[in-house]
Amino acid sequence: MACVRRWDAFTAAEAEVRAMVSDPRWQGLSVPDRAHVLAARVLVTGDGDRWLFGSHARWRLLDPADGRWLLAPPPRGERARKAGHAAGELPGEVVPQGPDFAPEPGSTQAFVGPDVPEHLTEQIRLLVRSAGRKSELDYPLTAFGEIFASDVPGTVAAVWGTVMWCAYAPAFDGNERLITVFGEYLRRSLPGDEWVRWLPAPPLLDLVTLVAERLRSGREREALRLAALMADTAQILLSDARFRPRALALLTMVEPALRRHGLDAAAAARGDGEVLRAWLARCPVRLGRALLCETDHEADFAHAVYDLCEALEFAPEPRGAAAGFLADLSDSRGLLPGRLDHRLRAAYEALECAGLTGTSAAESTAPEGFAVTGPGALSAAVEAAMETVNAPLVAPTDRAGKAAVLGAAYAMGLAWGRLTGARMPERGLAAQAALVRAIIHERDDHHF
């Protein structure tokens, strides 16, 4: 007999809202009218929590203390009923616009375990080899000087910067060929060790600077060449879901300047910031979530936490496991708890009371850079978080799942850094480094 999938209230409500938003008539409704039909589909679980499927095609949980609707994956499988909600209490930012409901599908996987496809790496290698033949006098290194030697042309930096900006979570195997092709141009060793390179995510402004400086210098041909290199690199990266959303966003920003020569010249004369704003304005709403790292650091962090919780759905208690990863963040000013939904906040505060937050600063490491934790453990904080909710510690059983958790956790740490200025440890946060131990021997390569 065929297996019958169990009915789930959240899945059903999600399908209903998706059908409404995809209806052409949705665009003709005013925001108050959209809020009205959305409010009628609010779900309530047995504990009284209220859930809304809203903008960016993501769920939100009502904070009973202050009435905010905070991003939070729903407890699928829990019983829930439609209860409705006052439409006037729904803020405009939670109401779907329409295009935001069709974000480009991506992946939270890090580049540890599953390698970058060989054909993609080879195409990037050819680009880098060609870029390296250019003169640094024609293409000065006006950005990425902390990565490359001073005599490296900006063309090489344009390819590197595009790869790193497009990566959802730029944590790579230590001998990943995609980064070793840049080896001869590097100023110093990359952050991390031979196991994992925890690379910084550059701001889009660094890419803009390479182009804008050439425009201001009257070197339009060189500026176009740099923009074309970024577009060529992004086009290659589209084939890997870990790069795809931002690669597509970058193409929408850069390609108009390739079709209309001089498009950004006037903006460049006013400064790099003006060019950045012009690029961002070209990106369609559908790709807006991929640009939150540039446009809204608060929302960027909230979505990164959502991604982490989704990656941890395999766990008996995802919010407990997520709290363990959040506990690694540096938060001396106490900014973090107020940014979490009340379920996740309770799990985090339990760790805080136990003195287990900020664990990356306190945890010792072995000589090879791995956190000192038991075999297979994620970290003391993750284990303690799971214990607070009486759930056993469970790690992903498959390589893809481990890579997804690792990438989501690293992206969350980078988003926290953008929001607060906190610096990521050169060898990753404690729970991330511990998770590496569980995946490092499942790499595609065997060079260890």
How is this structure best described in words?
The chain has 448 residues and is mainly alpha-helical. 45% of the residues lie in helices and 6% in strands. It contains 18 helices and seven strands. The protein has helices at 9-22, 31-39, 118-131, 154-166, 177-180, 204-216, 220-237, 244-259, 265-270, 272-282, 292-295, 297-311, 318-326, 342-353, 359-362, 380-388, 399-420, 430-439; strands at residues 43-45, 50-54, 58-62, 69-71, 80-82, 171-173, 196-198. The strands form two sheets. It has a five-stranded antiparallel β-sheet with strand order 4-3-2-1-5. The chain is globular, with a radius of gyration of 23 Å. The relative contact order is 0.11. Residues 361-378 and 385-394 have low confidence and may be disordered.
What key attributes describe this structure?
448 residues, mainly alpha, 18 helices, 7 strands, 45% helix, 6% strand, globular
Describe the sheet with the most strands.
5 strands, antiparallel
Ranges with pLDDT <50 over ≥5 residues? Answer: 361-378, 385-394
The CA-CA distance between the termini, in Å, is 48 Å
What topology, given as strand order, has the largest sheet? 4-3-2-1-5
Percent helix, as a range, is 40-55%
